[in-house]
Amino acid sequence: MKVEETLGFQIAEADRSYTDRDTILYALGVNLGLDPTNEDELKFLFEQELTALPGFSNVLAHPGFWLQDPSLEIDWVKVLHAEQFVTMSRPLAASGTVRASYRVMGITDKGEGRGAILYYEKTLRDVETNDEICRVVTGVFCRGDGGCGDHGEVPEPLAAVPEGDPDIVSRNVVDKRAALIYRLSGDYNPIHISPSIAAKAGYDRPILHGLCTMGVAGHVLLQEMAGGDPARFGGYTCRFSRPVFPGDTLRTEIWNKDGGASFRVIAEDRDEVVLDRGSASLMAS
Q1: Per DSSP, what are the bridge partners of residue 171?
Q2: DSSP 29-97
Q3: Which of 109, 145, 151, 192 does the annotation list as catalytic?
Q4: How far apart are alpha carbons 256 and 159 in whole angstroms?
Q5: Is 35 a catalytic residue?
Q6: Which domains are present in the chain?
Q7: Residue 256 predicted with pLDDT over 80
Q8: CB atoms < 10 A from the CB of 226, how many?
């Protein structure tokens, strides 16, 4: 990795329009709609009085895989999604146009041969008023770029979930078609659809997108913490620790705390933590 070039890399500001269809497609991709009688989910799926899930901010106006730029000399083949931070200033509209700006924040070096985490930020604003809607920070684990040193601004380390039993436990069986639907929101990595490419990566079948798993958890948190109201939901963060497969049973464990909650997600059939060190907040009143 060329550190100076990476930290100074410019991703062009862009306006992105989206429709009710995009908002509904995202909700279908993160497992909503499996029970057609569940009226609590209809507001995220039905165009009448449609509401956008906060997790939709993860995919809206995504900057693309800029880490492949040859001038950066990042070993992009070894890049993995490490952490994600979503902070909501106000709810997303069900449709409209947002102005997206981006910046590379900083690097946490794990040491030579151990990789480094590179953080970059996306800010979405209302194109007409310039009011901030949300900030999304992505941490990518550059496994082939350790030894580059610490640089710039990075988020505070994510805290471990509390000891003891969680206050809330929710289970969701992931639709076996989830990866096929979720990819239509913009992540077309073939590891999520092609059995042969998944096999080359060491998996016996295609895996689910990490942000899809985070979207499933985000809906659970929204319901349990904010009564399904995005205007009360302040955001959430987590670390991606293990892959999820379509068809898995996900157990979301939530510990209440002042102003929000800690959480993690476990693939129950394998007893593997797939999202760890999660934290969610309510909107300041």
Answers
A1: 251
A2: HTTTTSSTT-GGGGGGT-STT----GGGGGTTT----GGG-GGG---GGGEEEEEEEEEESSPPPSSEE
A3: 192
A4: 14
A5: no
A6: 3-152 (3.10.129.10), 168-282 (3.10.129.10)
A7: yes
A8: 18
- Quick check: pTM over 0.85? yes
Active-site residue, 258 included: no
- Which residues make Cβ contacts (< 8 Å) with residue 245, sequence separation at least 6? 174, 203, 205, 206, 207, 208, 267
Give yes or no for residue 285 having a pLDDT over 80: no
Asked if 103 and 63 touch (Cβ cutoff 8 Å), the reply is no
Instruction: Give tens-digit pLDDT for 73-91.
Output: 888 878 889 999 999 999 9
Query: Of 187, 219, 248, 276, which one is the catalytic site residue?
Result: 187
pLDDT in tens, 10-46: 999 999 999 999 999 999 999 999 998 999 999 999 9
Query: What phi and psi values does residue 94 have, to the nearest 5 degrees?
Result: -70, -25
CB 93 within 8 A of CB 52: yes
